[in-house]
Amino acid sequence: MKNCWFITGTDTDAGKTVATCGLLQAAAQRGWRAAGYKPVASGAEMTAEGLRNRDGLLLQRYSLSGLHYAEINPLTFAEATSPHIVSQAENRPVTAQAMSAGLQHLKTKADWIAVEGAGGWFTPLGEGFLYPEWVIREQLPVILVVGMKLGCINHALLTAEAIQASGQVLAAG
């Protein structure tokens, strides 16, 4: 699928969700059946519907209607910490297979997908498993969101260099 993008940031709270929702809205306005996918999220709260992450809920809001929350954010953790720490603490490992299965499922419903990462480019997801490994496996072009703060030019250049060194296409940043 050529209309599938990975949105990463220079850091946590860099603005990935705002950028992803804007991209989803623009794609929908152009007639695409657009969906957001946040395979892994931590920092969720228990609601009447179950564990929900704020970013995941926003992606659901800007995605095509009828998608269930679990289709957009299948791996949700309550504690607001790095996915590799919380998944180990809860004995719920994050696997490339589970992440890919969710993406493949979304591809049957949408023709334009924005995949939002967690944290920054090198966020660890499990023991010896970093986010870029999955992005490379899925061959997703990368959109880099830069958090506007002191030092952001350095962060942006370092992250862009790391993305390109991994062999991924840096589509925007």
TrEMBL record:
Quaternary structure and partners: Homodimer.
Known EC number: 6.3.3.3
Keyword Lipoprotein annotated: no
Keywords, comma-separated and alphabetical: ATP-binding, Biotin biosynthesis, Cytoplasm, Ligase, Magnesium, Metal-binding, Nucleotide-binding
Record's catalysed reaction(s): (7R,8S)-7,8-diammoniononanoate + CO2 + ATP = (4R,5S)-dethiobiotin + ADP + phosphate + 3 H(+)
GO terms (BP aspect): biotin biosynthetic process
GO molecular function, one term: protein homodimerization activity
Signal peptide: none
UniProt-annotated binding residues for Mg(2+): T17, D55, E116
Essential cofactor(s): Mg(2+)
Compartments where located: Cytoplasm
Protein name, UniProt field: ATP-dependent dethiobiotin synthetase BioD
Stated role: Catalyzes a mechanistically unusual reaction, the ATP-dependent insertion of CO2 between the N7 and N8 nitrogen atoms of 7,8-diaminopelargonic acid (DAPA, also called 7,8-diammoniononanoate) to form a ureido ring.
Family annotation (CDD domains): DTBS
PANTHER family, per the entry: DETHIOBIOTIN SYNTHETASE
Amino acids binding substrate: S42
Principal subcellular localisation of the protein: cytoplasm
Gene source species: Tatumella ptyseos
